[in-house]
Amino acid sequence: MKICVLSDIHDHVKHLEMILRSEEAQSCEMMICCGDLCAPFIIDILNKNFANKIHIVFGNNDGDQFLITKKSETINRQSDKFLMHGQFALDIRAGNKKIGVSHYPGIARNMAQSGNYDAVFFGHNHIASLEKIQNTLLVNPGAVMGWNPSDPDGQTPVSFLIYESGSNKISFYELSDEKIVAMKI
Predict the structure, then answer these.
(1) Most CB within 10 Å of its CB: which of 13, 112, 150, 157?
(2) pTM of this prediction?
(3) SS3 assignment for 9-32
(4) In this structure, are residues 56 and 85 in contact, taking their beta carbons and an 8 Å threshold?
(5) Are the C-beta atoms of 177 and 17 separated by less than 8 Å?
(6) Can you give the residue ranges of every domain in the chain?
(7) Which long-range contacts (CB under 8 A, 24 or more apart) does 46-54 make?
(8) 14, β-bridge pairs
C-alpha cells in the first residue's frame, strides 16, 4: 500500500494543494498527517483534493481541535474518510505493517524504540529525516509550510513522503519551482 505522509501544513494552502494534486500523492491509497494543520478549513482542502482515507494527529498549533474534529465528522457522515486520532495514533494498519504517528519527535522516538511498529511518523521540527531504530523506521516528512523556525534564514524545503508498506520503502519529495521532485535525505 502506498501512503502519502505530510506534516506541518500551517495553513499553507498553495503548497498543500500542489502536493495533493501531484501524481505522487494521487497514487496513494491512504494519507497520514502528522499535525499542525492549524485552521479547520484545511480539512475541507484535504477532503476536496484527496479521495482516500486520511489519518490525522494533532500538533501544538492545531488551536481549534474541536472544529477540526467536527468538520471531519460532518464529512464522515457521507464518506467515512477522516480518522482523527488525537495526540497520537497507536495502531494504523497498512497490509501487514503497523504504523504509529505523533507530532512530537520525542514521543515518536519512544514509540520507535518500543519495537512495536514497522514505521513511526512525526513532524514538529519541519526537518525531513529518516532513521532506523532496530527494525523500525522513524521518519519525519518535513514541512508542507516550507519554513524552519530553528534556521536563522528560516529556509527548508516544502516536502512530504510516500511510504510503500509492502517494501517498507520511503521516498521523499519536495516542491521546487512549483514541480514535485525527488528529494535526497
Answers:
(1) 112
(2) 0.95
(3) CCCCHHHHHHHHCCHHHHCCCEEE
(4) yes
(5) no
(6) 2-183
(7) 46/16, 46/20, 46/82, 47/75, 47/81, 47/82, 49/16, 49/17, 49/20, 49/21, 50/4, 50/20, 50/25, 50/26, 52/28, 52/81, 53/29, 53/81, 53/83, 54/30, 54/81, 54/82, 54/83
(8) none
Neighbour count for residue 123 (Cβ, 10 Å): 29
Q: Give the amino acid at 156.
A: T
pLDDT of the residue at 153: 80
* Locus of grid cell 498553495: 14
50 grid coordinates: 484527496
pLDDT, tens only, 65-108: 999 999 999 998 988 899 999 999 999 999 999 999 999 999 99
